[in-house]
TrEMBL record:
Organism: Paenibacillus shirakamiensis
Pfam families in the record: ABC2_membrane_4
Signal peptide: none
This protein's name: ABC-type transport system involved in multi-copper enzyme maturation permease subunit
Membrane spanning stretches: 21-39, 59-78, 99-129, 149-169, 203-221
Keyword field: Membrane, Transmembrane, Transmembrane helix
Highest taxon, organism lineage: Bacteria
Amino acid sequence: MFKLIQLEVRKHKLFSYLKSIIIANLIIIATLALMYVTSETVDDLMFTSLDEAFKIIHILVKAVFMIFTAMIIVRVLIEEFKMKTIQVMFMYPLSRRQIILAKVMVIFSFALITISVSEVVLEGLLLGVNSIFPILTGEVTAPFIWRELMNIVMSSLAAAGISLIPIYFGMRKYSVSLTFISGIILSSLFNSNSNGYTLSSNLWISIIFVLIGLGVSWITIMKVQHKDIV
């Protein structure tokens, strides 16, 4: 299975997306800075503490990379079925279930790694800048850092699971547009902020969405196993 995953990563040149991931993070940094500066000019700061800033980083990172993951779904899964190049892989002495499972694991891992690493890097940069220019309140202690790391792990797992849901819509007619649209809708729904509340901040709702994402992936695997590619 690990070799299959490695093959998928190399075949689709996923490491070539590193530049795009860095650019996306730079845009998030610029957005965060612009939000602070703009709100400061009207004397109505959007965030004044590290906790509030971290919540905004969580929302921005998940919103960006859940949509980014929809693009990976198209590249790794939908286009191969649409162009029928998946038939080549089905000629391998492996079950279809193993092949599709490897693809789903690549998609899930991409979402999990990009979201979690981006959040760690951006929050680390914010802590570094705030230690030099203390504009945000909040004491940085070991319990504070540990709690935030746990938040990153849990929210990244939830977002990665939810990012699998567009597979269902994309695989219905091997539709690229449906994959992107469903990814954008889910990202907007999951990360929309209403008076400081987001669906992603609710543990039980996140668990439900993750289970849906995993269920959708399993259904896809089972369907492909018995379906002819036409």
